[in-house]
Protein backbone atom coordinates (compact mmCIF):
# COMPACT_ATOMS: atom_id res chain seq x y z
CA UNK A 1 0.00 0.00 0.00
CA UNK A 2 1.20 3.49 -0.86
CA UNK A 3 0.11 6.80 0.59
CA UNK A 4 0.21 10.16 -1.17
CA UNK A 5 -0.01 13.40 0.75
CA UNK A 6 -0.76 16.67 -1.03
CA UNK A 7 0.80 19.12 1.38
CA UNK A 8 -0.36 22.14 -0.61
CA UNK A 9 -3.98 21.10 0.00
CA UNK A 10 -3.40 20.53 3.72
CA UNK A 11 -5.05 23.14 5.95
CA UNK A 12 -3.38 22.11 9.20
CA UNK A 13 -6.29 20.56 11.09
CA UNK A 14 -3.84 17.80 12.18
CA UNK A 15 -6.51 15.09 12.33
CA UNK A 16 -4.10 12.81 10.46
CA UNK A 17 -1.54 13.31 13.24
CA UNK A 18 -4.01 11.93 15.77
CA UNK A 19 -4.61 8.84 13.62
CA UNK A 20 -1.12 7.86 12.46
CA UNK A 21 2.24 8.76 13.98
CA UNK A 22 3.86 9.02 10.52
CA UNK A 23 2.17 12.41 10.28
CA UNK A 24 3.73 15.20 12.33
CA UNK A 25 2.69 18.75 13.15
CA UNK A 26 4.70 21.45 11.44
CA UNK A 27 3.64 24.50 13.40
CA UNK A 28 6.01 26.77 11.46
CA UNK A 29 4.14 26.08 8.19
CA UNK A 30 0.74 25.37 9.75
CA UNK A 31 0.58 22.03 7.93
CA UNK A 32 1.30 18.38 8.57
CA UNK A 33 4.44 16.57 7.40
CA UNK A 34 4.63 12.92 6.38
CA UNK A 35 7.82 11.58 7.97
CA UNK A 36 10.12 9.66 5.66
CA UNK A 37 8.11 10.44 2.54
CA UNK A 38 9.66 11.25 -0.81
CA UNK A 39 8.61 14.42 -2.62
CA UNK A 40 7.54 13.11 -6.04
CA UNK A 41 6.20 16.46 -7.30
CA UNK A 42 6.22 19.88 -5.68
CA UNK A 43 4.27 19.51 -2.40
CA UNK A 44 3.20 15.91 -3.25
CA UNK A 45 4.74 13.29 -0.99
CA UNK A 46 4.66 9.51 -1.34
CA UNK A 47 5.47 6.72 1.10
CA UNK A 48 5.12 2.95 1.17
CA UNK A 49 2.92 2.07 4.14
CA UNK A 50 4.27 -0.69 6.38
CA UNK A 51 1.92 -3.68 6.65
CA UNK A 52 1.38 -3.08 10.35
CA UNK A 53 0.36 0.56 9.75
CA UNK A 54 -2.22 0.10 6.98
CA UNK A 55 -5.22 0.57 9.28
CA UNK A 56 -3.74 3.73 10.80
CA UNK A 57 -3.00 5.10 7.32
CA UNK A 58 -6.61 4.44 6.27
CA UNK A 59 -7.92 6.29 9.33
CA UNK A 60 -5.58 9.21 8.63
CA UNK A 61 -6.80 9.44 5.04
CA UNK A 62 -10.45 9.19 6.00
CA UNK A 63 -10.24 11.90 8.66
CA UNK A 64 -8.58 14.51 6.44
CA UNK A 65 -11.24 17.23 5.99
CA UNK A 66 -9.80 18.40 2.65
CA UNK A 67 -8.90 15.00 1.11
CA UNK A 68 -5.18 15.78 1.00
CA UNK A 69 -4.35 12.12 1.69
CA UNK A 70 -4.87 9.28 -0.78
CA UNK A 71 -4.15 5.58 -0.37
CA UNK A 72 -3.44 3.13 -3.18
CA UNK A 73 -3.26 -0.65 -3.06
CA UNK A 74 -0.39 -2.63 -4.57
CA UNK A 75 -2.14 -2.64 -7.96
CA UNK A 76 -2.33 1.15 -8.00
CA UNK A 77 -6.07 1.28 -7.33
CA UNK A 78 -7.21 4.04 -5.01
CA UNK A 79 -8.43 2.66 -1.68
CA UNK A 80 -9.18 5.94 0.12
UniProtKB/TrEMBL annotation:
GO molecular-function terms, A-Z: iron-sulfur cluster binding; metal ion binding
Keyword annotations from UniProtKB, A to Z: Electron transport, Iron, Iron-sulfur, Metal-binding, Transport
Top-level taxonomic group: Archaea
Keyword flag Transcription regulation: no
PANTHER family: FERREDOXIN
Record protein name field: Ferredoxin
Amino acid sequence: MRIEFDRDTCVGMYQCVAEWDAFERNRDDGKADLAGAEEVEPDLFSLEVPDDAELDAKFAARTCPVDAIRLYDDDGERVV
